[in-house]
Design brief:
The chain is an alpha/beta fold and 152 residues long. 38% of the residues lie in helices and 24% in strands. It binds flavin mononucleotide. Flavin mononucleotide (FMN) binds next to helix 1 and strand 4.
């Protein structure tokens, strides 16, 4: 099964998760930063797309890229998404907890666009950072590898 992981990242945490997902998927999987993706790259069985959650959404560049895909271009592709986000339990802010309930996260929004382009959803997953620049919470790399194995 040929798979591609596309990501965007500012401080490097989402990139680390993306690399762990590629590891978990195995040899037929490749990794691309969103800025380097070409139309032919999307000729895969499984497409996984991830972004940091910023202002309750994915990175603008990633959103523009996904929205620019022709409709039905992912018709025979299984699609999954992931994001990195701050753990509201750790931040302990009532305002933030309430806001995220209303405005959500990048992962769900990415998946919605992928499905709108014809992709068949195989799920979305959240990975946590301890502060906005990281580091990742302990165990997140392993969790990403394990999640990827289930996507086969
Ligand atoms: C401007 C800005 C906005 C952010 N907005 C959110 C948010 O809405 N929800 C959230 O959980 N985390 C938010 N964060 C934390 C990011 O999710 C965190 O910086 C990201 O996971 C780090 O990933 P990266 O290292 O790949 O850039 C925000 C961080 C920044 C700098």
């Amino acid at each position: 099964m040929k798979s591609l992981v596309i990501y965007d990242s500012v401080f490097g945490n989402t990139e680390k998760i993306a690399r762990a997902i590629v590891d978990g998927l195995g040899e037929t999987s490749s990794l691309k930063h969103v800025s380097t993706v070409k139309p032919d790259d999307l000729n895969v069985d499984l497409l996984v797309v991830g972004s940091p959650t910023r202002a309750f959404n994915a990175m603008p560049t990633l959103n523009s890229f996904l929205r620019s895909l022709p409709s039905d271009s992912l018709r025979s592709v299984r699609v999954a998404s992931f994001d990195t986000r701050v753990d509201v339990g750790v931040v302990d802010s009532k305002v933030l907890s309430t806001m995220v309930k209303f405005f959500g996260y990048a992962g769900e929004k990415i998946l919605k666009i992928l499905v709108s382009k014809g992709g068949q959803s195989v799920g979305t997953k959240a990975f946590f950072v301890l502060d906005k620049e990281g580091p990742l919470k302990d165990g997140e790399i392993l969790r990403a590898q394990e999640w990827a194995k289930q996507l086969h």
